Amino acid sequence: MNNKDIRLKNWPFDIRARVKLEWIGAPFRYEKKMVLPVYFNGKVNGYYTTEKLIVDWNVLASLRIQHYYVDGIITKPIAPNQTEEIIITINSNHVGYFEQNYSIRGTNYTEISQTFVIKYNGERFYLPLIEVLRGVIAPNAFLLNCLFEMNSFPLYFTEEYESDLLRLRFTSLYNAKYLKNEYLHHLVWLLMNKNARKVYENMASNFHFNNTIKFEWPFETPIKLKLRVKKTATGYTVLYINAMLDKELQVSNLDITHPSLVHHEKSNEPRKRIVLPLSASGDYEADTTVDRRTNEFDEVITDTLTHEYVDTLVITRQKTTSTKQRDGIDDNTKKTVKGDNNSRSMGDIGGTNILRGLEVKSLNNTYVNGELADFKEVLNELSRAYFVDSVEAYIGELTDIGGRSFAFVDDGITPRKYIVGYVKLRNGKEVAMLEVERAGRSVSTLIITPIDGSNVKWYIEPLLKYIIFSSGSWLKEGLAKWEKSLAILK
């Protein structure tokens, strides 16, 4: 993160005022992505008021109820007075679920309070349901981002089990930064804890049909948590989960593969291209109006949240291929300067978005030439067909998705463009047509339609990432992972 803080854009409170986070509301879908309503109380023009701010879903990782924030910096929460840290063991027989309407103090807003009430050593602990998601089930950005994507795991990896061994074969869609041990440990725990996994994998469909994140307590066996709590007249309010302790893994060995796990052969040969970042000074701004997501926000600072295990997991990283790593730069190295205004979306888009946060433009007023112009005419003709209800078409650049060589045309500088057309037929079916600028390459048009009732738009970014990784080839073996969900023609 370059030691930069993350601050919320359009912070309405006075400069240097201590602002209390009163409440975290229920998530909802806004502008193609998941967001949260968050209620803060503090001084505006010298007078205390409560303001409702809409933040990206992923901001949840840095939010602490009843904590204080200054100047919108969410990475530096200030703990309230008279709190304490307590370790408790939670038995499922001593957990109840309580739900009621909650009026936000100082406003006309009403939210639903969803709380697990836990009995331990003669005391009651009030644990917010959303904190169980953040602190136990999905404690990192990858899992938070995928939570509202239906059937998301097969897009990122396949699983194979052998007695005391789990094999995970990660695809290029899985960010290599999540191959760190702490992420892999929790992923293994989640995959093999059937109840927690069921909660996670059912979240997207439950939210889609019921517009809620309600779920039952997911643990049959006792779990141990380290909590930051505040005493009340009736028990303890859990402000946040600080750690999950004594987690048990059901395997001792993990074997993984990933496209980034390759043998590098050092070379002094000059690099073909280099991207030079032009960074702006100051803190990052978390902006819900920004669709694009960047690597800086893939790992949100989560204070002291830790997970500890009683088992030892031996992780074997299988390196498959060999590649030459060029370290030199000369006059022939193509240089691209990439600007940065520090404006970020903290959330992955997910769900029924168009290209999950990529910057795309309508084709109506966009000039294209070559095969893309021909494809545009095909879409125009389709829009007039009697069996077609509507056609949407958008253009984008592959460099917004990945930086490998195929993302550029042959000069190594100009981004390679693509067009995606969404065709809605009169019988209700949806078809997506994907055309990538060829510029000297032989790339066939890809046509897809869901066979499992899912939204066709979910698959566009993964497919674009795949065509970049495969250097412009729609290989049958590479497309096989989508065959259960899509009918594919090329």
UniProtKB/TrEMBL annotation:
Residues 324-338 have a biased composition (Basic and acidic residues). Residues 374-480 form the TnsE C-terminal domain. The lineage of its organism: Bacteria, Bacillati, Bacillota, Bacilli, Bacillales. Residues 324-345 are annotated as: Disordered. This is TnsE C-terminal domain-containing protein. InterPro entries: TnsE_C.
